[in-house]
Amino acid sequence: MKKILLILSLSLMGISSGGVAHHSTNLGYDTSIENFEVTGEFIGFRWVNPHVLMQVRVSNQAGEEEIWTAETHGASVLGRFGWRPNMFEPGQELTIIGNPPRREDDHIVHIQYIETTDGEIYSPNQAN
């Protein structure tokens, strides 16, 4: 009986660690930096589960255009917090504050919150 419980416990640990690894922000983002800012023109959402992605058009320091992707929770979670796929207008300027990518050449950010030019704050972690 003890062997069966040991095998079952080890099996469950293996399954659960895979789930945690999939959802770990540490894999693609530098979580030691929390207030990385990307300001640009909202292009649109990819409003899906398990992660909503949004794109913004950014002018880099050399004046060149870059497309940045911002990632957050899935559509079902954001919907419970009051987010909607039409909450921002294409062309609207937004500042995304979050965790930067681990690789310098990646143009992706993990959203902590979004600020509009009129000062409205949208958090993916609380009711808006």
TrEMBL record:
Record's keyword terms, sorted: Signal
Domain of life: Bacteria
InterPro entries from the UniProt entry: DUF6152
Signal peptide: 1-21
Protein name as it appears in the record: Copper-binding protein
